[in-house]
Amino acid sequence: MTLPFAIALAHLRSRRRQTMVSVLGVALGVGVFIAVTGLMAGFQSFFRAQMIESNPHVTITDEVRTPAPQPLAMLHPEAAVVVSRIVPRDPVRGIANAGEIMAALAAMPGVAVAPTLRGQMLMRRAGRDYAVSTIGIDPAREMRVTTLQKDIKEGSLEALGARPDGVVIGQALARKMGVALGDTVAVSTVAGGESALRVVGIFRTGLEQQDLGQVYVALNRLQSMQARPRVVNEIHIRLADIDRSREVAAMAEGRWGYKAAPWEETFARILEVFVLQNTIIYGSTGSILLVAGFGIFNIISTVVSEKARDIAIMRSIGMPRGSVVATFIAEGIAVGVMGVLAGWLVGFVGASIMETFPAPGAEDPTQRLMVRQTVFTYGLAAGIALLSSVGAAWIPARKAARTDPLEIIRGAT
Amino acid sequence: MTDILKVEHLGRVLPLAVPVTLLTDVSLAFQPASFTVITGPSGSGKSSLLYLLGLLDVPTTGEVFVDGTPTSALDDAARTRLRLAVFGFVFQFHFLLPEFTVLDNVMLPMRQLGRLTRPQMKERAMELLAQLDMADQANKRPDALSGGQRQRTAVARALTNDPPVVLADEPTGALDTKNAAAVFAILAGLAQQGRTVIAVTHDEGLAGTSPRRVHLVDGRVVRDAALG
Question: What is the distance between the alpha carbons of residues B23 and A226, in angstroms, rounded to a whole number?
């Protein structure tokens, strides 16, 4: 053991109670950090998994990111020409060569594709209208690109293939409309067609936006209702390796020109909220660790004041200023390390206890809070705590190093 | 014989609002294996001279030579290193670290120097403690010792790095007559072993036992017994 560290431990041992309070402060900070960030990460992890599992990893739509350039602008690219009041062409919407695109994508390893037609629809029940986003799917192929089947609570997705007038709706929407499996609902599309659909399946993803505002019908049925025969305006892609989503999307967009959005783009807003949420949670829980640093500052400042004579004698016998600083930094580190170790235990136990609590708002009474504990979180908590400890020790350590031994020795005689 | 320690025209003025002169034009030389006592009334500059000799303070004028090397141009780190290697200090108050045992306190300068292994340090410390009749107190803490035992521990600590110069500032000031005489005898013995021992004291009786006596008044050397 080095001399500064030996002296540091001796100082801390001589003030056991104060040391324990400081260690406890750091431990609580680390424990709360691990438990709270774990809870948040667990929620985000669950939410992200739900998003990714129940939705395509890449969605190709019949849109283009940038409008076609105007001929005049192409003819005189450097000219000071303003083209206004352009009446855009109104081509038939839909992915023109969907079959060819799907065949090409399906030929790629680890890629599954499914055609869909997305549109708006009004569902009418008991005199009230419910605007929903309607997705026309080929059930057999859709099951290869999403895990919607897993989220079906009543009925089945395959029923859409057996019953041309079937519709699969979210549990939240079913409750809101007061419909159950087998009930018939009147629907109308923007194309003006009206018909009746029978509820053949009820799903629950846990994502309100989908459970309340999204329904599934057979692809050819929706094409018929929207008077868009054989039209596909979305191609859903599922990847064996989710990390390839950006790469595959970029390839598809570059090759066929249609907008291809990876899941990160589709759910960008939610992911942005996660970033904000992370910033707030890490900031607030991290600040607890900084506050714990004040406890360390307090004990080391006290020790520096009390041990002025010891510092003077150590300096007079030849301890350099750097070793004096090292002594008190070592005290901060020692408190920090003890606090981190205890805090890891507090965090682990706290997180384990929280995992036994029922998830608030969950419809499934057996569902428990998800707390995600990672090596990163433990490491980050330790890193912040130790930085805080060193920072808190630095100021009194510098003061101690500046002590003029002669002043103390003269003062003592 | 070469002087191990020498000061020439040493002056020290405290730069206060009203400057205070501690020492004026002090020139002295100290040879190995010598025992010098510095005496003088309170405020005469005895301790100030000792601190300058031990590189704990920096002179306003003049120069301190350690083994022929001038020291005024050295920075704090170099002075600290020199202090660790050349000087052993004994103060009026023992300044032992209360959390450490006698043995650990004695080993402190050796641990700072880092030349020996831990078993070697322990052997050396125990050897010194035995010489000072303190071996049986090695595992006690300072608060369990008498005043004389604490001061003997401080002497042992001053000697652990085998310094050629031992500086003692009123080493018997807090001791009773018997313990004071014992500590003074130890210091005299160190000189006989080849060290340069310089002790500040106000005890006329003890000062009389020293072969050389430097007497200060108002920061000036008024008598140096070795010079006759």
Answer: 107
